[in-house]
Write a structure and sequence with these properties.
The structure is a homodimer. In chain A, the strands form 2 sheets. Chain A has a two-stranded antiparallel sheet with strand order 1-2. In chain A, strands 3-4 form a two-stranded antiparallel sheet. In chain A, helix 1 packs across helix 2 and helix 1 crosses helix 4. Chain A is elongated. Chain A has one domain: Winged helix-like DNA-binding domain superfamily/Winged helix DNA-binding domain (Arc Repressor Mutant, subunit A, Orthogonal Bundle), CATH 1.10.10. With about 120 residues, chain A is α+β, with helices and mostly antiparallel strands. At the A-B interface, strand 1 and helix 4 of A face strand 1 and helix 4 of B. Strand 1 of chain A pairs antiparallel with strand 1 of chain B, so a sheet runs across the interface. The first copy, chain A, binds a DNA duplex (30 and 30 nucleotides) through helix 2, helix 3, strand 3 and strand 4.
Chain lengths: ~120, ~120
DNA sequence: TTTCGATATGTCGAATCGTGCATAACCATA
DNA sequence: TATGGTTATGCACGATTCGACATATCGAAA
């Protein structure tokens, strides 16, 4: 009996743009929320700052929503936190994703497990 | 009101190997079933024969299941069809995937739609 | 006013992945 | 037995993605 696991990736598309929001950006938003800066968040997730910054820019531009409140300068260099809308996106996506994950586990047990040998 | 769509990708991992089965291989199996050969299937899906062949090899090797019955030679060159096990995998995965897709649409409407502006 | 660490952005190189191409083996049928 | 289209497989090239760097900017606090 081999051990197998379901994996999935979720994202949202607009008419023109692929991946305006998804698992990666969701994780990044959460990390920014807990770490207090984009820089620290990128380190926590072990992705480059360059990518983290690009991802957030893309999301905000494509969703036409201000997810982040960015601060530059100061002795501590700056900081970034979530706007109310950013927090709402995190909350909603968390529930959204969690329901799908549950459905995936359930469906796996129901349909796939019997095939694994 | 921007139009947005959910997208997802599903796959299965074993302990050691990433992606031993998933959406791509499922589509490929179905195409082989309807087209009658790996070659025709790869053309129908517009992927290279090279990749199609590699994907099927990987799946069979990692799942330790014979999904395909391959025939070489003959005036028509050969053919490939699904084994009974191959058909079972297609059937099961189709149901599996469909349940998750439904859950995703439902969850999107429930949690995400309100955020889109 | 100097400082220091974070934000902001462009660029080039490395890794990953698929395609294209080449070639061999195969064998039912004409 | 000659043929032709498919399976089988290696390899090099091209695209796409991401990370590593290199700067530039910013501004509250020392």
């Amino acid at each position: 009996m081999k051990k197998m696991r379901v994996r999935f990736k979720l994202w949202l598309n607009t008419k023109n743009v692929e991946g305006v929001f998804g698992d990666g950006k969701w994780r990044l938003l959460r990390a920014i929320d807990s770490e207090g800066s984009l820089n620290a968040a990128s380190k926590a997730l072990r992705i480059s700052y360059r990518k983290a910054w690009g991802d957030m820019s893309k999301a905000e531009a494509c969703l036409n929503v201000a997810l982040l409140e960015r601060h530059r300068g100061g002795r501590m260099g700056g900081a970034t936190c979530l706007t109310e809308q950013g927090k709402e996106w995190v909350k909603a996506y968390t529930k959204f994703r969690s329901e799908i994950e549950k459905a995936a586990e359930k469906a796996f047990k129901k349909h796939m497990e019997k095939l694994i040998k």
